[in-house]
């Protein structure tokens, strides 16, 4: 499968995406645990069906020491016992923040309150920006049918 657009060879894309992707790099330095960031990025990408992001975040999480069991259970995190309460709150917020078109309420007060019991204001900010960022990146990749499978961990660092 070939991508509809190659963002790396189009000057207009390179110019705009340079700033857009710098936001993603800044997220890595925010005070949200790295494991939580990868789990959230993976879950958002699973929901949206973004194969290239699923490939990337699975490999990045593995390189950072995440276990195959936890990665394999992200899609069914509610029934899994391998996630902390804080991670479960982040995954719930990520799901509701991604499925805003599927539910009239967006992120419920209950989900927000649960996340707020585990994360401070800076971490909540990082979580909200991460969910929003991943939804945007997923759409960039899905619209242009970016192929998955060839990502190498650390490729964009």
TrEMBL record:
Residue ranges annotated for the Carboxymuconolactone decarboxylase-like domain, each copy included = 17-96
Write down what this protein is called.
Carboxymuconolactone decarboxylase-like domain-containing protein
The UniProt GO MF terms for this protein read: peroxiredoxin activity
Q: Which SUPFAM superfamilies match?
A: AhpD-like (SSF69118)
Pfam families xrefs: CMD
* Highest taxon above the source species: Bacteria
Source organism of the structure: Streptomyces bingchenggensis (strain BCW-1)
* InterPro entries membership: AhpD-like (IPR029032), AhpD_core (IPR004675), CMD-like (IPR003779)
């Amino acid at each position: 499968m070939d991508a509809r657009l190659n963002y790396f060879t189009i000057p207009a894309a390179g110019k705009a995406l340079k700033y857009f992707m710098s936001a993603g790099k800044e997220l890595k330095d925010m005070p949200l645990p790295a494991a939580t960031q990868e789990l959230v990025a993976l879950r958002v990408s699973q929901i949206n069906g973004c194969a290239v992001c699923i490939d990337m975040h699975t490999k990045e999480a593995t390189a950072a020491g995440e276990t195959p069991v936890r990665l394999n259970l992200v899609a069914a995190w509610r029934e899994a016992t391998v996630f902390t309460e804080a991670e479960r709150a982040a995954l719930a917020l990520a799901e509701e923040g991604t499925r805003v078109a599927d539910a009239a309420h967006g992120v419920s007060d209950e989900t927000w309150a649960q996340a707020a019991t585990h994360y401070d204001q800076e971490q909540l900010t990082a979580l909200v920006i991460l969910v929003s960022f991943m939804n945007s990146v997923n759409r960039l990749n899905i619209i242009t049918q970016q192929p998955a499978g060839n990502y190498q961990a650390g490729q964009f660092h």
